[in-house]
Amino acid sequence: MTEPLRLVVADDQDLLRTGFTMILTADGIDVVGEAANGAEAIELVRATSPDVVLMDIRMPEMDGLEATRRILAEADEPPRIIILTTFDSDRFVYTALSAGASGFLLKDVTPEQLVAAVRLVRTGDALLAPSITRRLIQRFAPVDTPSAALHRDLAVLSPRELDVLQLLAKGLSNLELAAQMELSETTVKTHVRRILAKLNLRSRAQAVVVAYESGLISPGATGAGT
Predict the structure, then answer these.
(1) Measured in Å, how far apart are the chain's first and last C-alpha atoms?
(2) Residues in domain HTH luxR-type (predicted)?
(3) Which of 112, 133, 153, 155 is deepest in the core (most CB within 10 A)?
């Protein structure tokens, strides 16, 4: 039997923490702790080793961005971190994704979307709606990178891995990648793992940011979804 997914909720609003905890617990997810600020979140992660953290950006004492950086930097196998925000175009969301967060959710997410998102990131997928990703990139990515120039790290990728990264950056899931490239889903997962390892990245979301910032794909590229 699969072990229950273990999760920490970090938000300075008591009502939100309680609501998220009730929703997730009702679906069989083990909420192992609640934190009211980033410092508490770090201590809880150290003490409980959760699979996923729901992390609010704006919290007192230590914000969620700094907590995200520290959690991802200090753990050999850090949890997946989902950023909670009230603004889908928040600059801090982009920074958190660049740091290795697995994606983000708006705080008015439905219970069904919340549960699905938490379970999705545990598998290694990213929470990145292509349209929102493009808006974030357009607003906050460096604008002085020539569109034809590749990030120097991308030279370590094989041609097939570059193809996978391009499609991944357009918002395709592993299943969609497999169908488009006529590969098995297992093979696609292997390619994604190798891409992350070669580029020393924490998450698929981070890979998407690198793909855009490097000029491998542009925000206006076709086929990225809406």
Answers:
(1) 37
(2) 150-215
(3) 133
Beta bridge partners of 80: 52
User: In this structure, are residues 39 and 12 in contact, taking their beta carbons and an 8 Å threshold?
Assistant: no
Question: Which residue is listed with tokens 């990213």?
Answer: 126
Give CA separation, 44 vs 50, 59, 79, 222, in Å.
9, 16, 12, 42
Q: Whole-angstrom Cα distance, residue 101 to residue 36?
A: 19
Residue at which a domain ends, from 97, 127, 157: 127
The rounded distance, in Å, linking the Cα atoms of 114 and 31 is 13
Last residue of a domain, one of 109, 127, 145: 127
Please provide residue 57's backbone torsions phi and psi, each rounded to the nearest 5 degrees.
-80, -50
Examine the domain organization and report whether 83 and 143 are in the same domain: no
156 in any annotated domain? yes
Per-residue pLDDT of 39-73, as tens digits, reads: 999 999 999 999 999 999 889 999 999 999 999 98
Residue 203, Ramachandran bin (φ over 0: left; ψ between -120 and 50: alpha; else beta): beta
How is the chain split among helix, strand and coil, in percent rounded to 5?
50, 10, 35
The one-letter amino acid at 113: Q
- Structural domain boundaries, residue 33: 6-127
Tens digits of per-residue pLDDT, 185-222?
A: 899 999 999 998 999 887 887 888 888 778 787 665 54
